Amino acid sequence: MRVAAVQMNSGPRLDANLERCAKLLREAAARGAGLVVLPENFSLMPASEGNRIAAAEQDGAGPAQAFLSAQARQMGLWMVGGTLPMRAQGGARVRASSLVFDNRGRRVARYDKIHLFDVELDSDEAYRESDAIEPGPVTANLICIDTPAGRLGLSVCYDLRFPELYRRLSGDGAELFAVPSAFTATTGHAHWEPLLRARAIENLAYVVASGQCGRHASGRHTHGHSLIVDPWGRILSELDSGEGVVTADIDREIVTSLRRRFPALQHRRI
User: Fold this and answer.
1) CA-to-CA distance for 73 and 67, rounded, in angstroms?
2) Can 23 be counted among the known catalytic residues?
3) Inter-CA distances, 53 with 39, 46, 99, 191, Å
4) Catalytic pick from 134, 157, 175, 213?
5) What pLDDT was estimated at residue 135?
6) Engineered SS bond to 105: which of 41, 73, 177, 254, CB 3.0-4.6 Å?
7) Which pLDDT value is given to residue 142?
8) What domains are there in the chain, each with its CATH number?
């Protein structure tokens, strides 16, 4: 199956983001994609965290969820809906939820981002996602699902720095990973490509990584460079900057063959 990663420069207006997203999804479908991964915060890159909380949707109802379902059904696409803010219990914070819809528009999985980006960078940038976002639980939130492109493991952005998550997912049979992201320009320049290629190489799996790009209303500058990596760590397709789509073909036989001939996953002793 051909897969696609969509790159966006999302802003603080839901309607404008969904309009641009629909255009990019049409492009992905026209290029033959059957599974599409949208970036983190595809529906909303708010000017403030208060705006994110105010825009949170109830599980199972809301304009962003309705959009994903309708687009998947109308275009016949499997879709990993990046992340959107979903109400957490109590309402003081949200979950950063990645929702998967099949090609009939049915939701088949939900993953809530586990690792939150609370860091201070040398560039004087500081981020505290936990001020507005509640981390997803670990044990009940390691999500692998069967898709026409293969068994798909779900993750989001900062999760990429925690290889134990991907090892658990590959242990559950993952043949490809979705990594919707909004990597900062600072960390992206230093670490984005090496981390993505490492996760692919370690687990002998494909990686489909979709990113936000450019400047946003909050002042955040994101890295872009959406890409697709094969199980040997080779970059199959990449978009440096600007909104757009990258595609590549997933060959499950390559995963099977590599894991048989180079059985590193079976050689683990720790």
Assistant:
1) 10
2) no
3) 19, 10, 18, 29
4) 157
5) 96
6) 73
7) 96
8) 2-267 (3.60.110.10)
CA dihedral over 166, 171, 172, 175, signed as positive or negative: positive
Phi, psi (deg, nearest 5) at residue 219: 95, -10
Task: Identify whether the C-beta of residue 39 lies closer than 8 Å to the C-beta of residue 226.
Answer: yes
The Cα–Cα gap between 105 and 202 comes to 33
Kindly report, residue by residue over 215-241, the tens digit of the pLDDT: 999 999 999 999 999 999 999 999 999
Spatial separation of the C-alpha atoms in residues 32 and 22, rounded to whole Å: 16
- Name the catalytic one among 21, 57, 113, 129: 113
The per-residue pLDDT for range 206-216, each reduced to its tens digit, is 999 999 999 99
pTM to 2 decimals?
A: 0.96
Mean pLDDT for 197-213 is 98
Active site residue 144: no
Alpha-carbon distance 181 to 173, whole Å?
23
Q: Amino acid identity, residue 185?
A: A
Report how far residue 191's alpha carbon sits from residue 237's, in angstroms, rounded to the nearest whole number: 18
pLDDT tens digits, residue range 117-149? Answer: 999 988 788 999 999 999 999 988 999 999 999
Confidence of residue 90 (pLDDT cuts 50, 70, 90): confident
Contact 226, 192 (CB under 8 A): no
The predicted structure's pLDDT at residue 95: 97
CB 229, CB 176: distance < 8 Å: no
The dihedral over CA atoms of 21, 49, 116, 95, expressed in degrees to the nearest 10, equals: -70
**Residues constituting the chain:** 270
User: Please, which residues have CB within 8 angstroms of residue 105's CB and are 6 or more apart in sequence?
Assistant: 69, 70, 72, 73, 74
Task: Determine the residue type at 235.
Answer: I
Whether 19 is a known active-site residue: answer no
Pairing of β 78-80 and β 94-101: antiparallel
